[in-house]
Amino acid sequence: MSISNALVNALTGLNAVSRAADVVSSNVANAMTEGYGKREIELTSQQVGRTGSGVSVVGVNRYYDPVTTGERRYADAEVALEDTRVEFYETYAEAMGQVDEEDSIAGRITGLETALIEAASRPDSEARLATVLDAAQDLARQINDASDVITDTRMAADKEIGQTVDFLNSALQRVVDLNVAIQKQITQGYDANALMDQRQTLVDQISAIIPVNEIQKDNGMIALYTNGGAFLVDSKAATLEFTATPTISADMTIGNGALSGLTINGISVSTDTEKGAIAGGKLAGLFEVRDELAPQAQVELDAFARNLIERFQSTDADATLTTGAAGLFTDGGAVFDTADEEGLAGRISVNALVDPDHGGELWKLRDGLGALAEGDQGDATILKSLTEALQNSRVASSGGLTGIERSALGFASDIYSLAETRQLNAEADLSYASARQESLEEIELANGVDTDYEMQRLLVIEQTYAANAKVIETIQTLMDQLMGI
């Protein structure tokens, strides 16, 4: 080997070692960086004619496991979906209140029952009649508040859908822009790995909202499509459209056109969490809350409000009531109409005839709403009838809890029990999804940067650098000796 060849070998070795040290330092520095792909330097020997001419850096490869990453993304989407469900059920169960809490719907029923029994023991006591009125108003108000929570939850979900769609449109376009930038970097011979890291982080965010499959294309570009077959990114980004509705009432649904659905490139798509074009993930979960879970809760609460009104809107509860007259509880001050049950829980109120603040008389709780004049102050007949109306078992006329006779307290308890059961089931599903997500994340990390291994490589790089430097130093010494002859 000639001195010149030896010098070329050593110089190319130093260059390769310098690049290798840069790769190792990048790996160690980004060991905890989300979306970072482990780097590996690729080297090859150089040859000029038949003579070896050192080492050449082919490039820096980015490690990427599409199978594990794809599975982890599906797990991210599942966690986001289940978390959305759990959040709704927690909110609804809290609005209903636990059965043993005084300020729950069940607790308010118990309070009304107690007030009626105490008033029946002293029907001449105006204070006890006032307590009955307060207890009835508290119950109606608690039902109103629970209904408001459901409505607010639907509006919040609708608003978040709009914000999420805006983010998706922006994110999908950024993926396209990164695709172009990566393609340009690769075709020009530059390192595009940092851009790929950015794109992977962005796709991770998109996949938690809508689960996506990633397809590798030429020159580092990718395409994204959903499990339902909708393309989100190919040569260009898809356009998602959704119109938020500022105010939502119980009767407004996507079916009757009062609420907006989702379109992709102008085509309406199903938002079903299991089989729709965007199945799984947070966006489908938000649609489920707005269009299924919250309306279902509203139906159950409306059925309870109807049951409560009908208990007191009969001559069995109040013999003084005339045909078509409202009882102790009303539909916003009017007689309940069976054709107008949607949103009833938000309108239920105490009859103004017994409310002094609205021109009513407390004694009508004792003598009957249809009484024209105050009767015997010691007569507790109607107060006892009202108590029995609350306690008697009665079959619900609507909702999903029909077919079984229940007291008012039993009805409220069953609704809360359903909400709590659904919450527990959702929490169990979330726990399973989270465990699977953590497992896949651990696999990803195991295939990622190993700092111990990188530090071992750094020691080898240090030794290699010293060896190449020693060769150059030796060549310098030889050249000095030759020049001195």
UniProtKB/TrEMBL annotation:
Domain Flagellar hook-associated protein FlgK helical per the UniProt entry, residue ranges: 101-327
GO MF annotations, alphabetized: structural molecule activity
Record GO biological process: bacterial-type flagellum assembly
GO cellular component: bacterial-type flagellum basal body; bacterial-type flagellum hook; extracellular region
The keyword Secreted appears for this protein: yes
Signal peptide residue numbers: none
Domain Flagellar basal body rod protein N-terminal per the UniProt entry, residue ranges: 9-36
Annotated keywords: Bacterial flagellum, Cell projection, Cilium, Flagellum, Secreted
Residue ranges of every copy of the Flagellar basal-body/hook protein C-terminal domain listed in the record: 448-483
Localization per record: Bacterial flagellum basal body; Secreted
Pfam families: Flg_bb_rod, Flg_bbr_C, FlgK_D1
Major subcellular location class: other
PANTHER family (alphabetical): FLAGELLAR HOOK-ASSOCIATED PROTEIN 1
Name of the protein described by the UniProt record: Flagellar hook-associated protein 1
Organism: Celeribacter ethanolicus
